[in-house]
Design a protein that fits this description.
The protein has 335 residues and is mostly helical. It is built from 16 helices and no strands. Helix 7 crosses helix 14 (291-300) and helix 9 packs across helix 12.
């Protein structure tokens, strides 16, 4: 018996009857010889962790564009916080921690430079639209490894695709990540907004603080514990009505006061204009696209708009700014 097979047997003996067992995966699009050490979902986790798209997340905006300070979240630190929260919940519920972590680490691989401002710009200008969860799937299925993709299992891809509020993950592990994503960004964005002095703790409505707590630590503790207590030995991942109400309305409060109308968003129009300009420029100068993207364009026939979106969405904030400067700012004006 291989080490992988022993690990799969431990899953059978220990995990909840509602957990996704590695040996029961729906498999990969391209059949592969199983690893002799790692179960399928652990292997997926490792592939995501080592891919280029994951490393680029450290230079992509979470909420604050080019913040002046070392402690603001970026897209990578957000991803790591989602992973930590999701793993804590999955472990407590005896779900598959490897599957949970793989989904969490991969859920934002398709995010654009400049956060949701970049996503809005591409969605507005691309004829087929742009949604970062769908782009994350293109990253792992097509764009990574020069068009070969990562060949992940169906369950990991399903969790990545369905992590947004409107999604319906097929596994409980995917549902855990879906909630962990919200828990992470609500709380770390409050923390960053307070650091930026655009939100004070006392400005958060008292009725939400009475339920969830009066600090980021208290709110995290309340939400995570509530999910675990209310989901034990159940075929679903749920919150209690009071905590779900407070969390949903706190999220709406953040959209009104931080995500869409605050000093943190004052520069986003410039970022969107930059993305739109790059889109049009590459659309007219396809020869500037890297060869691997041209190969995808001509081999798959996905169309110019989609492949241009592929390239731009993969850029870091700094790279997008450098390319915009190169194409649109006279050299004598560049600092």
């Amino acid at each position: 018996m291989t080490i992988r097979e022993m690990a799969e047997e431990r899953e059978v003996q220990y995990l909840s009857k509602y957990a996704s067992l590695s040996k029961n995966t729906e498999g990969r699009d391209r059949e592969e010889t199983p690893c002799d050490i790692r179960p399928a979902y652990q292997r997926d986790r490792d592939r995501i962790l080592h891919c280029k798209s994951f490393r680029r997340l450290k230079h992509k905006t979470q909420v604050f564009l080019s913040p002046q300070g070392d402690h603001y979240r970026d897209r990578l630190t957000h991803t790591l916080e989602v992973s930590q929260i999701a793993r804590t919940i999955a472990q407590a519920l005896r779900l598959n921690e490897n599957l949970t972590e793989a989904i969490a680490l991969g859920h934002d691989l398709g995010h654009t430079p400049f956060g949701h401002a970049g996503e809005r710009a591409l969605n507005r200008i691309c004829p087929d639209g742009f949604i970062h969860s769908r782009q994350s799937i293109r990253v792992v299925e097509i764009l990574e490894k020069k068009g070969r993709g990562l060949n992940l299992t169906w369950e990991v891809r399903d969790g990545i695709l369905n992590h947004r509020t409107s999604g319906k993950p097929a596994t409980l592990e995917g549902r855990v990540v879906q909630l962990a994503d919200k828990i992470a960004y609500i709380n770390h964005d409050i923390d960053d907004a307070q650091r930026a002095e655009i939100l004070r703790e006392e400005e958060i409505p008292e009725q939400y603080r009475n339920v969830l707590g009066n600090t980021t630590k208290e709110r995290l503790n309340t939400m995570i514990h509530d999910i675990i207590v209310n989901s034990q030995d159940k075929p679903e991942i749920v919150l209690s009505p009071d905590v779900e109400w407070a969390m949903t309305n706190l999220r709406k409060f953040m959209f009104r006061n931080v995500y869409t109308d605050s000093a943190a968003k004052s520069e986003e129009g410039k970022a969107e204009s930059m993305i739109e300009a790059l889109y049009h420029y590459y659309e007219e100068h396809l020869e500037l696209l890297p060869e691997e993207y041209l190969a995808i364009l001509y081999r798959r026939g996905d169309g110019v708009p989609r492949v241009v979106c592929d390239y731009i969405s993969g850029m870091t904030d700094q790279y997008a700014m450098a390319k915009y400067t190169e194409y649109f700012i006279p050299r004598s004006w560049q600092l």
